[in-house]
Amino acid sequence: MERLCVILLLVSKTFIANAQFNGFNCDANFHSRFPAERDISVYCGVQTITLKINFCPVLFSGYTDTDLALNGRHGDAHCRGFINNNTFPTVVLFSISLNTLESCGNSLVVSTAHGPNAYGNLSLVQIGNIAGYIDTPDPPTVISYLPGLLYKFSCSYPLEYLVNNTQLASSAAAISVKDSNGTFVSTLNLLLYNDSSYIQNLAIPMSGLTLKTRVFAAVKATNLDRRWNVLMDYCYTTPSGNPNDELRYDLFFGCDKDPQTTVFENGKSQMGRFSFEVFRFVKHKNQKMSTVFLHCVTKLCRSDDCPMLLPICGKRKKRDVSERSGGASDNAVITAGPIITRSDETPGNISQLAQLNGPPFKMNSVTSALISAIAILAVMSMCFFILSMSLLRGKQTPATSLSGSHNPAFS
């Protein structure tokens, strides 16, 4: 009877475990445990970083694949993985493209180490370390009986490799346009250039661009006839390749324009052109380099209608042709980047260099006023001191003459 009870107990445990792993390639004998460090595999590829997580311990812990997300971005579907049930055990796959270095909150930290450079010689080499984590969401309650899962990962690449493989990255968008002759599809591209000639593509050095370097951008369209032009509604930047990043900085939007941004051409031809000075995002304050991605919301418009779609700055009302059919296409978002920028020196280093090698020190108006005020206070203090000493001596003079008079009693 006791043996029968033991057998029934074992069978019931096996049944419960198998029911928990139902539909997935999991073994209850090996995977009825909480996750461990060995459950994540990291592959640092030439174009993407691939992460594989053993899904069976995740199931055993009471979670599903939708509970796993990159860097706590549980509300973003792009930051979740997908199940691969064709392997044993079942895994959850995450893929991170090197063209979007900070997508879903992944961090890029640049450091310097000794190693072989591009020519095979030993020298100081800058290393870009891409790091992040995969976790489960915190419950909305005060306590929880489920363990919180956390998987950390990192990949290191020579910074020169990252820059060379991402400096010309550009997304393309296909726009479908209807006109009287039917429907045609045009492709939009956002490209970056070194100068106003718009001939040489932007070249980013291994150490990154210095701040305030002017970059020239162009939105180009293909498969268009002369009746259609390119119209940039607005362009903005983000620290990641995600156009929906919550942190963004607008370069131009309607009549509002960044002071360092110049729009050369918009709505007048089949190319929109502008330039801006590169900067760094403050969130990268602890890093030597910052990544900037450029996004433009663009549409196609009839050459006759484009001027009517542009904002009339200085007036409240904006002309619109939305009621006219065929006036413009739908919007498309195109992206280029990353533009990697660097800070040359810290303020402390700059001041030291100025003292050692710079020209003679020149005072500005604020410094001159401050020194003048200090000098005036010093003179007033000295005058006050002299006046006080004079008054003090004046009070002591009668006492001195009285003590020096002759006393007849001592004669």
Question: What does this protein structure show overall?
Answer:
- The structure is a single chain.
- The chain has 411 residues and is α+β, with helices and mostly antiparallel strands.
- It has 2 domains: 140 residues, Immunoglobulin-like (Sandwich), CATH 2.60.40.3210; 159 residues, Sandwich (Immunoglobulin-like), CATH 2.60.40.4100.
- The chain has a 6-stranded mixed beta sheet, with no helix packed on it. Strands 9-10-12-17-16 form a 5-stranded antiparallel beta sheet, with no helix packed on it.
- It is flat.
- The N and C termini lie far apart (139 Å).
Low-confidence stretches: 4-17, 164-169, 316-326, 345-362, 399-407
Number of strands: 19
- Cα distance spanning the termini: 139 Å
CATH class of the largest domain: Mainly Beta
Q: Kindly give the count of domains.
A: 2
Question: Main beta sheet: strand number and arrangement?
Answer: 6 strands, mixed
Number of helices: 7
Which H/E pattern describes the elements?
HHEEHEEEEEEHEEEEEEEEEEHEHH
Radius of gyration: 35 Å
Strand order of the largest sheet: 11-19-18-13-14-15
Q: What is the second-level CATH architecture of the largest domain?
A: Sandwich
Task: Give the full name of the CATH homologous superfamily of the largest domain.
Answer: Zona pellucida, ZP-C domain
Overall, the morphology is: flat
CATH fold call of the largest domain: Immunoglobulin-like
Roughly what fraction of the amino acids lie in strands?
A: 25-35%
Helix content: 10-25%
